[in-house]
Amino acid sequence: VNENITISSSSEKSCFYAILTLMQLIEEKNNEIQIQNCFVQDFPKFKWRGLHLDVARHFYTVDEVKKFIDLMSIYKFNTFHWHLTDDQGWRIEIKKYPKLTEIGAWRDSTVENHYSTFPRTYEKKKYGGFYTQEQIKEIVNYASSKYITVVPEIEMPGHARAALAAYPEFSCTEKQQGVEGLWGVFDDIFCAKTESINFLQDILSEVIELFPGEYIHIGGDEAPKTRWQKCSKCQEIIKENSLKNEHELQSYFIGQMDVFLSSKGKKIIGWDEILEGGLSPNAAVMSWRGYEGGIEAAKQGHYVIMTPGSHCYFDHYQGRGKDEPLAIGGFTPLEKVYEFNPIPSILNTSEASFILGAQANLWTEYIADFDKLMYMAYPRAIALSQVLWNDKKPTFESFQKILVENHFPFLDKIGVNYSKTILKPKITQKRTNEGIEIKAESQDKTEIKSIIRIKKGIELDTVKFENKLLPPIQISNSKALGAKIEYITKPNKRYDNGDLILVDGQFGSRPWKGNEWIGFDTSVIIIEIELGKKQKINEVEISFLNDVNSWIHLPNTFTVETVGLRKDHGFGKSDFENSEKRSFKELNIKAKRLRFTIYCDEIIPENLPGAGNKPWTFI
Predict the structure, then answer these.
(1) Overall pTM > 0.90
(2) Which one of 54, 58, 86, 272 is the catalytic residue?
(3) Residue from 83, 159, 247, 311 carrying the catalytic annotation
(4) Domain of 343?
(5) Does 371 qualify as catalytic in the annotation?
(6) What are 54-64's pLDDT values in tens digits?
(7) Does residue 111 contact residue 181 with C-beta atoms inside 8 Å?
(8) Based on the domain organization, do 243 and 365 belong to the same domain?
(9) What is the DSSP letter of 252?
(10) Total domain count for the chain?
């Protein structure tokens, strides 16, 4: 037995991380503390290891933010991205403009349920809060004591409704509007006129005095250009500066902030939309709409933080069960986070050096309290910490075992309300000659909990498992159950959930989870279904998802035909406006193979979230 522990480090920070590593090696057995004999050589893989917290949609107290930072520190995160302003609230005191917190920090109502729920209802209750500059300093110093840098985000030119509620003169219309109580993207953004630029630079002058880190995040995402297109002052700026369009006007706008912050010794960072219209010379890019923005920025020689929604959005669902708490949508389970690689293989060694690291984002539209915040963050944050710290991390199966045996008891001891989703049996499905098989097994696949086989054509409403942790599964049986699917048009890799998902007898849930749908981002989609043998068909039904806030749109029209014997059935766009489920009845046809051809918009129209981008079609 060796009773000595030796820590060798190159700095106080290194020693701090070594102690954190040591803490994770501690085992408690028979009321005794034990540490196995070992040698650990430990150092981080990435420079930027971050977690983001949105306090604009829902507000968290100073003590809660400190608790959030405490857990970040334990798992060796070193960057706290603090999202302080948005349409639904302004959370930082600015002494030159007191109405930002007197008016902008408070909304009169908050939408209830999910954004996609109709008709919408609102909680008619004043909601809000803000941090004084002294409280900001307190949190920044607290984070610094744990070697965490705080990066503030002041959104511009979009997501500005809270600021414009306080100072409407800095919008294009100059009309008074309230702080927004609905989630989403809104047309009213900061006008690009000189007065607005000066207003924001005044704000940044106070912000930089509170945050000693090198970066200031200026947002830059989801800024509709509708108001700019109709604004005479914005159009005058475009003309005077020989800009081609409103995208270049946004680049001009961001460039003004870049020059200003550079003169103060700071660097700007923004969401990947700041690439549109040309990237400002000193800007770093936070790539959230996939890897593409980060790849483009790295190839241009700009620093990048990877935070793609597919792997790093912790406001997504993490479990399949209907008992999961309400979330915005998507599906980002623990295993998907653990398999995340921030460096795309397409980058060469030189280009890859511009990837500073990655972070996870916690947008809080559907996270109203601290317990739920912890549930959405952990244990996924632990998985991300492994990705960002370890050059050679263990297998996922090994990580799972360590998580359950070591981390979960620790989180229990300190009172963290973490997700236990991985303790539930895992559901898998496969085809059989007669239909499908649904299997429930332990997460490590060592114990089969239940197997249910369903034959096509047999009428069923639900299937029930013996294991009480598993809720019943609703089944809609049909002649297509377990049929072979051929995607003539390939799904997007982010939402390619296999060729059984359309014929497993289960409808995708609302609010949607990314594992229950097939997602496409093309204007024409062709899918064929092989029924196995020629049989009589009276009705064909297909279900689409409509969630414009997530850029998911209904198609314009589609046809169904038998392969070899054409049978077109087209619908006009109006038939899809509020109907996700479509069916063709009284067909009275015989077919062995059916072809679906689906026609979608090429770009999202103006005045809608994601305008100008390609829409998604989910089936």
Answers:
(1) no
(2) 86
(3) 159
(4) 48-422
(5) no
(6) 999 999 999 99
(7) yes
(8) yes
(9) H
(10) 3
